[in-house]
Amino acid sequence: MPPIIEYGIAIYALPGEAQSGDRHLVLHRAEGALIAAIDGLGHGPEAAFAAESAVSILESSSPEDSVISLVQRCHEGLRSTRGVVMSLASIDSKQGLLTWIAVGNVQGVLLRRQSTRASVPDELLLRAGVVGERLPPLQAAMLPITKGDTLVFVTDGIHSDFVLNLSPLEAPQKSAERILAEHRRGNDDALVLVTRYLENHK
Known about the structure:
Elements: E1 5-12, E2 22-29, E3 32-40, H1 45-59, H2 67-77, E4 84-92, E5 97-103, E6 107-111, E7 122-123, E8 141-144, E9 150-154, H3 172-183, E10 190-197
Antiparallel strand pairs: 1-10, 2-3, 3-4, 4-5, 5-8, 6-7, 6-9, 9-10
Helix pairs in contact: 1-2
């Protein structure tokens, strides 16, 4: 079965650091996908370790796990680390639904295939907190998703005005690289994950 999504990723590590503390996950499933952008608090090896730990927990999940339960699982598993902020989305291609949730300041937007420059994309509600330290009340949101819709996650090393210059026609990898080049703050690790939905629900 061909994948239901294609994606592009662009990452920037703070100068002087051997690796970025930001990580991503794109997990293809038979009838959907799990997508995450994760920012380890601070930068450097400890931030990278916390983010990698979250990725490992998410990789071991099953399609039946809700995004809320996955955040809770990460929270328990990261208590011995410095913690992360993260945004997480699950696509159910059978139902044509995207369910997403955020803890912290990893921005998320869903750009519709028919969007124009005047269109306002759907934005993920951000709730203050740190996975592994303190969780806010968890509430996931659900949206319909159709062929050609594009999900964008960015960590806080990217200026929030990136949303003003998005195109549903730009290839995901090109879009990720452009957003990083044009909107990077330069004083923190940065990650851009652009995911396009390729098929309608059956």
